[in-house]
Amino acid sequence: MFTSLSDSLDKTFRNLRGVGKISEKNIADALREIRIALLEADVEFGVAKDFISRVKEKAMGEDVLKSIKPGEQIVKIFHDELEALLGGDQAPLDLNPPARILICGLNGAGKTTTSAKLANRLKKEGRRPLLIACDLYRPAAIDQLAVLAKQIDVPCYTPDASESDVVKVAKDALAWAEKQQGTVLIFDTAGRQEIDEKLILELKRLHDFVKPKETLLVADSATGQQAVSVAEHFDGAVGITGIILTKLDGDARGGAALSMRAVTGKPIKYAGEGEKLDQLFEFHPSRMADRILGMGDIVGMVEQVADKVNEADAMRSMKRMQEGKFDFTDFLDQMKMIQNLGPLEGLLGLMPGFSKIKKQLPAGAFDNKKIKRTEAIVLSMTLEERTRPEIIKGSRRQRIADGSGTTLMEVNQLIKQFGEMRKMMKSPTKMGNMMKQLGGAP
Ligand code: GDP
């Protein structure tokens, strides 16, 4: 996401840093370019204009122009304003009892999926969420929620298919919830193709009855400005307490994320970045600003990885690397760990500077099929070959290629790459640099 905006910012700031002495004209030119980039990213016109004038006011100050590194200072000013634009601090949910969350939005925005994702998150945080299906219009919505609830093992209230009064459903659900001893109730409500009066009236009735602590609008970020106006409408009708932006994974522009807070005054609390039920993340303005500026989001990356990688396994593998004992069996374990992480491209997108190196990677570097082929090659090696790769010579290589259904060329390539990897692991400076880049020791 934000790819073209990030690229434009990178170019503009690189130019600015390259200038020995920065003049007011340099800044004005740079900000004009940035303003165009923001508009191209579908940021609301007024928001872009105000934003640029705030940055300009701070950047034109004497102390910036006369400082030793004015380019760096301007990037910092830009970063801080971007963070403020995105909402400043991360906005937590109000989960004081009775914690009730109403999930609303248009059809297809991702309400049902997000309700389940949120339940999944809250469950992992040690709460006891309950899901309640209140979408009586979309025929499959109730079943969809029930299926998702089952996948994450969260109790779900499903009304009778003949029921048409949403307040009656909510009333029955509250009685059911009482017995379930849940601590957070999540109500998935009905949507429409577009906002209509009937939908809003129903939502208001439900809202009045449930009296939720949180009314969260689920909005599809890929719809850009439309998502922002939908949020304004829902806020005017029922008063939303926050926004969950979905499909950030498919949103190359990012205009909705950037304008939402400024236009609606409501915080983005979570962001959906994929279809899987663990792909809902807290929205941290500061980290998002880092990402937009190509500085990556190491904390976010570690959080995502921590969830899926067994720390003991990772440490064991690290130790073997340091001791120079890393062999093909360890390699296979690592491949499995990597596969557990899900699509690598999204995860690596959180790495600082990744957008730049990505273009240089060979096509298909993240191709799951390629990973599977590599795995097949390793599995075709004998145990001895995996531990002592140096014995894998001519005829053995052919046997491995035949056994794994791959080619001799692929086997040769893998063994060569593995050799280079081992060499790098043995070099303390290179390993150190790699760790430093990852933000870790030493
Ligand atoms: P609803 O009509 O608002 O309840 O929408 P659904 O929950 O049925 O979601 C509509 C579609 O969007 C489904 O195919 C979901 O899998 C998909 N979806 C939801 N959230 C995300 C997301 O964050 N990323 C991606 N890529 N797809 C999503």
From TrEMBL:
Enzyme class: hydrolase
Catalytic function, reaction form: GTP + H2O = GDP + phosphate + H(+)
Entry EC no(s): 3.6.5.4
InterPro entries assigned to the protein according to its UniProt record, in alphabetical order: AAA+_ATPase, P-loop_NTPase, Signal_recog_part_SRP54_M_sf, Signal_recog_particl_SRP54_hlx, Signal_recog_particle_SRP54_M, SRP, SRP54, SRP54_GTPase_dom
CDD domains given in the database record: SRP_G
Residues involved in GTP binding: 105-112, 188-192, 246-249
Gene3D superfamilies the UniProt entry points to: P-loop containing nucleotide triphosphate hydrolases, Signal recognition particle SRP54, nucleotide-binding domain, Signal recognition particle, SRP54 subunit, M-domain
The entry's keywords: Cytoplasm, GTP-binding, Hydrolase, Nucleotide-binding, Ribonucleoprotein, RNA-binding, Signal recognition particle
Family the UniProt entry places it in: Belongs to the GTP-binding SRP family. SRP54 subfamily.
Function description: Involved in targeting and insertion of nascent membrane proteins into the cytoplasmic membrane. Binds to the hydrophobic signal sequence of the ribosome-nascent chain (RNC) as it emerges from the ribosomes. The SRP-RNC complex is then targeted to the cytoplasmic membrane where it interacts with the SRP receptor FtsY.
Domain characteristics, as noted in the entry: Composed of three domains: the N-terminal N domain, which is responsible for interactions with the ribosome, the central G domain, which binds GTP, and the C-terminal M domain, which binds the RNA and the signal sequence of the RNC.
Known partners and oligomeric status: Part of the signal recognition particle protein translocation system, which is composed of SRP and FtsY.
Protein name (Swiss-Prot/TrEMBL): Signal recognition particle protein
Source organism: Luteolibacter yonseiensis
